[in-house]
Amino acid sequence: MEKILIIDDEAFIRENVERILNEEGYQVLSAEGGKKALELVSEEEVDLVLLDLNLGTENGIDVLRSLKEIDPDILVIIITGFGSVESAVDSLKMGAFHYMKKPFKADALRVIVKLALQTNSLKREVRAIRRGDLELFEKVPMVGASAIQKEIVRQAKEVARFTAATVLLTGESGTGKELVAKAIHHLSDRRDAPFIEINCASIPVNLLESELFGHEKGAFTDARQRKPGLFEEANKGTLFLDEVGEMEPTMQAKLLRVLEERKIRRVGGTKTIDIDVRLISATNRNLKDAIRKGTFREDLFYRLNVFPLHIAPLRERREDVPVLAKFYLEKYNKTFSRNFQEISKEALQLLESYSWPGNIRELKNVIEKICIMHEGPVLLPSYLPIEINAGDADRNGAHILEPIEEDLDLEQAVERFEKRLIRAALEKSSGNVLQAAQILKIPRGTLRYKMTKLNL
């Protein structure tokens, strides 16, 4: 239920506005002056303020300025008499949402209040977008032909139906855990609310609490204004905690309390705030091992592990490699205005044979780099990084050599192969001969001799 504060020194106006807004289902607070109003905003979660500019001896502009110092994002509608329209315009420059002239009709008040609250909701979504959810669910998690991937998709769709279910995604780095989390969010009834993500390993423990739960003005040295936390920003939506296994024990205890009570308290705050958030966590660590070592709380693990979903590494679902490669090739074709029409049979064999230690993230980066460096129309084996073109592919039994023409003898075939490897090493090192020699594990002089011999 949205909470609205009325600030007006006339009791009749306060009572009349309160009656109208109560009929619309809003919770209404009231104050006759600035002092009480500022106390209420400091203590309560106020969604909207209706502020009269003429508060007896007080100046409404000063009250507006103080409200914005407490909460820069607070929405304020100015109520003004005929003689103070100029002041109302000044208040708009200070960040007020709108102004209404007295006397105003009940229907007009209802419409303006509704628009203001819708704006508040849109602001939360914009903050979510700015935090990185710019792509509204590319169907990358749905891409794949393997039975393993189809099972991941089935389970994601199933858990998406239950909007309160807590999910724990496990799997190696780069397997696409974040994309599966986004899929669950966008397939659920929470899709129109924010999807907020944070990497627990990238933020120091003393800042993580403030990021998650927010802080009040003055809570610590640099807390110059109130700041809502990510749990509040994600309200009605989904909060994705990546690398949750890296969270410090003190934060684990606080997160456990939030999951149990479904309430948060800002740093430096005294009141609790109800939250309605689906929590999805992800880790590439074995949390049961961490429990045995005493670095992860067992009770928190069981709270997070309500619906476990393991994302298999790419090497265990090789049927997905060609599908993903073609997906990213099409994507980066458009991004870089390239003309790739297909991947050659030999290049596909090398891609499928590679072990992909970096999983989907590595495959994506490989295709992106190829589209930066080459035009097309066919993705050839020589475009692939050396570790795919030779080393790792060889260990996995791939066909390193392209089909040998009938009139080539062994020496000519070896020469062709050497040429391909050296070109790949030079490409990987951006033409740096010393680095290319190190990649090939041969002396720089030997490499220069071979480059001259092979006319490279």
Query: How many β-strand runs?
Result: 18
- At the first level of CATH, what is the class of the largest domain? Alpha Beta
Largest sheet: 5 strands, parallel
What's the structural domain tally?
A: 3
CATH homologous superfamily designation of the largest domain? P-loop containing nucleotide triphosphate hydrolases
The end-to-end span amounts to 72 Å
Strand content: 5-15%
Shape type: elongated
Please tell me about this protein's structure:
It is a single chain. 48% of the residues lie in helices and 14% in strands. Strand 1, helix 1 and strand 2 (27-31) form a beta-alpha-beta unit. The strands form six sheets. It has a five-stranded parallel beta sheet with strand order 2-1-3-6-7, with helices on both faces. By secondary structure, it is an alpha/beta fold. Helix 17 packs across helix 18 and helix 18 packs across helix 19. The protein contains 19 helices and 18 strands. The chain folds into three domains: 3-122, Rossmann fold, CATH 3.40.50.2300; 140-312, Rossmann fold (3-Layer(aba) Sandwich), CATH 3.40.50.300; 329-453, Helicase, Ruva Protein, domain 3. The longest helix has 25 residues, at 106-130.
Q: What is this structure's SSE topology?
A:
Blueprint: E1 3-7, H1 11-23, E2 27-31, H2 34-43, E3 48-52, E4 54-55, E5 58-59, H3 60-70, E6 75-80, H4 85-93, E7 98-101, H5 106-130, H6 147-160, E8 167-170, H7 177-187, E9 195-199, H8 205-213, E10 214-215, E11 227-228, H9 230-233, E12 238-242, H10 249-261, E13 263-264, E14 273-274, E15 278-283, H11 287-293, H12 298-304, E16 307-310, H13 320-335, E17 342-343, H14 345-353, H15 359-373, E18 378-379, H16 386-395, H17 410-428, H18 433-440, H19 444-453
Helix pairs in contact: 2-3, 6-7, 13-15, 14-16, 17-18, 18-19
